[in-house]
């Protein structure tokens, strides 16, 4: 990975985080393609979500569901 691509990736991640911090959930959701997979493993040894538990393992539809809960105001533990 080049230094330029690393900088672009970091810039994107900061942009993504800013959208979430500012509760711009629809704009954040628009970053995801239809074949998206959002995976947050529980520890660094988790290499296969089919055999290890994960904090989050969402496809595009589940990501959309999560956004709707956040927008509803009733997702207190995630807000």
Structural account:
This protein is α+β, with helices and mostly antiparallel strands and 79 residues long. It is built from three helices and two strands. It has a two-stranded antiparallel ribbon with strand order 1-2. The longest helix is centred in the N-terminal third of the chain and has 19 residues, at 3-21. The radius of gyration is 14 Å and the shape is globular. The termini are far apart. The model has no long low-confidence stretch (mean pLDDT 90).
Brief overview, please?
With 79 residues, this protein is α+β, with helices and mostly antiparallel strands.
Task: Summarize the helices and strands and which ones pair or pack.
Elements: H1 3-21, H2 25-29, E1 37-41, E2 54-59, H3 60-72
Antiparallel strand pairs: 1-2
Average predicted confidence as pLDDT: 90
Low-confidence stretches: none
Strand order of the largest sheet: 1-2
Beta content comes to: 5-15%
Number of helices: 3
Helix content: 40-55%
List keywords for this structure.
single chain, 79 residues, alpha+beta, two-stranded antiparallel ribbon, 47% helix
């Amino acid at each position: 990975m080049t230094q330029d691509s690393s900088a672009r990736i970091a810039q994107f991640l900061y942009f993504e985080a800013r959208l979430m911090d500012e509760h711009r959930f629809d704009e954040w959701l628009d970053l995801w393609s239809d074949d998206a997979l959002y995976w947050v493993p529980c520890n660094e040894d988790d290499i296969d979500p089919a055999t290890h538990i994960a904090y989050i393992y969402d496809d595009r539809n589940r990501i959309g569901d999560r956004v709707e809960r956040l927008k509803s105001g009733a997702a207190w533990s995630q807000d």
